[in-house]
Amino acid sequence: MSIIASPYQPPINREQLIQPFYQEFDQSASQLKKQFSITESLDIMFPEQKRQDKDVARAKETLGELAKEFSAKEIKEIVTDIDCLVANWLDDFERSIFEGKTLKELLHEKGGML
Q1: Burial, 43: exposed, middle or buried (Cβ in 10 Å; 0-12, 13-18, 19+)?
Q2: In a domain, 64, yes or no
Q3: Is position 68 within any domain?
Q4: d(CA 44, CA 101)
Q5: Domain contains 18
Q6: Confidence of residue 42 (pLDDT cuts 50, 70, 90)
């Protein structure tokens, strides 16, 4: 049986451990210093708006030529209505399976994080 000595590695000190976090914080802070337009500021504060814009773009892509018959506002309303219908249908389906409760309600009762 042979013993192979590994090279000595000094323990990591606090500065080495924390340095990557400082670098990330400095980069984030420098981004906050620049001036944003009102639209950019609102997009940062309300990121769900970007998601909704992506949903509308996907709906237009899916509808193809038919999308030209609707205004952007109408497509936004259609997407919102469809999202609501799907959520309600899913809740009804879950209630039919889980004895009158949704999965979210069951997980909440069991101490889940939802």
Answers
A1: middle
A2: yes
A3: yes
A4: 35
A5: no
A6: confident
pLDDT digits (tens, 9 = 90+) for 96-112: 999 899 988 888 877 76
Mean pLDDT across 51-76: 87
Q: What is the DSSP letter of 110?
A: T
The distance between the two most distant Cα atoms of the chain, rounded to a whole number of Å, is 81
89: amino acid identity, one letter:
W
Those residues with Cβ within 8 angstroms of residue 66's Cβ, 6 or more apart along the chain or in another chain: none
Tally the domains of the chain: 1
**Tell me, what's the pLDDT at 92?**
95
Which residue in this structure is represented by tokens 């889940």?
112
Look up the pTM and report it: 0.50
- Show the domain range for 43: 39-109
Collect contacts of 69-78 with beta carbons under 8 A, ≥24 apart: 76/52
Q: Which residues contact 49 (CB under 8 A, 6 or more apart)?
A: 42, 43
Q: Is the residue at 57 inside a domain?
A: yes
Per-residue model confidence as pLDDT tens digits over 16-26: 767 776 666 66
